[in-house]
Amino acid sequence: MIANVLSIAGSDPSGGAGIQADIKAISANGAYALAALTALTAQNTQGVSGVHLVPPDFVAAQVRTVLDDIHVDAVKIGMIANAEIARAVAATLAQCKAAIVLDPVMVAKGGARLLEPDAVDSVRRHLLPRAALLTPNLPEAAHLLGKATATTRAEMEAQGKALMQLGPSAVLMKGGHLEGPGSPDCLVTAQGARWYECPRTRTPNTHGTGCTLSSAIAAHLAKGSNIGASVAAAKAYVKNAIAQADHLSVGSGHGPTHHFAALYAQSEGDRA
Ligand SMILES: Nc1ncnc2c1ncn2[C@@H]1O[C@H](COP(=O)(O)OP(=O)(O)OP(=O)(O)O)[C@@H](O)[C@H]1O
Ligand SMILES: [Mg+2]
């Protein structure tokens, strides 16, 4: 049977991040994508010009209606927007047994706020303890901890371990914001830290890398892989999606990654 993954996140009409990226990444990684929206954004590759929130009760209604009918193997949570939506999502998922990947989205690549400042505490209290895996980028990890942003591998590992104390079963510290030739990620579990190395691709087209990675991890968890193997497979997928991103021609800012690079290469091969 094909595994089912539910993404609870915001919409990015430019297609590179948010629920659109999630559906592509889940599909490209071999699972069936379900999607419940928390917010509509007006955004393109240059930035976010507007945000329209879904009422918290209706976010909960979407999730509840899906769970009433469909067996969900893994959940990915992205843009949560405010404290009321955080509480509504946590309450609705209280009885859900599926592994939850929580991507604590706070600020868009262009700098727009996607989580209200007073909602950080609700995410920390209501959602972090429910997460099988938390996937912060370095500024998000620092914000959740009330510390300065990590700039070294040692600080990344230490902050990952500190975030474990807030309740998630595992933490993946993403190194996209690190300076240097690599973009390493650090997975912290009860067993300790494990590093995933990757050369840094020089491209402006990294819109939605975080959404894409967390959704791909959720797809592999849904298919039955453990956390370490799911992160490895998802990291390899994102690395290729970024490496192939310049084949797309989408906007003049931070363009999307190529979610279906492998599938398009295969169909080119089929035609040749
Ligand atoms: N230029 C790059 N080359 C290779 N890998 C990258 C690059 N930029 C980011 N990554 C990888 O992409 C994944 C997402 O990390 P990143 O730190 O960019 O997340 P994010 O800041 O949450 O992204 P977003 O802006 O989409 O929310 C990580 O595995 C990271 O190592
Ligand atoms: Mg992100």
Calculate Rg over CA atoms: 17 Å
Mean of residue pLDDT values: 96
Strand order of the largest sheet: 3-2-1-4-5-6
What small molecules accompany the polymer chains? adenosine-5'-triphosphate, magnesium ion
N-to-C SSE series? EHEEHEHEHEHHEEEHHH
Category from helices, strands and their pairing: alpha/beta
Query: Can you give the helix content as a percent range?
Result: 25-40%
Q: Sheet bearing the most strands, described?
A: 6 strands, mixed
Distance between the termini: 32 Å
Q: Could you characterize the architecture of this molecule?
A:
There is one protein chain. The protein is of the alpha/beta class and 272 residues long. The chain has one domain (4-271): UDP-N-acetylmuramoyl-L-alanine:D-glutamate ligase. The chain contains nine helices and nine strands. It has helices at residues 18-28, 56-69, 83-92, 120-127, 138-145, 153-164, 209-222, 227-243, 261-271; strands spanning 4-11, 32-44, 47-53, 74-77, 99-102, 133-134, 171-173, 185-189, 192-196. The chain has a six-stranded mixed sheet. It has a three-stranded antiparallel sheet with strand order 7-8-9, with helices on both faces. Strand 1 (4-11), helix 1 (18-28) and strand 2 form a beta-alpha-beta unit. Helix 1 crosses helix 7 (209-222) and helix 2 (56-69) runs parallel beside helix 3. The relative contact order is 0.16. The mean pLDDT is 96. The structure holds adenosine-5'-triphosphate (ATP) and magnesium ion. Magnesium ion is lined by residues 103, 105, 137, 210. Residues 103, 105, 137, 210 line the site of magnesium ion.
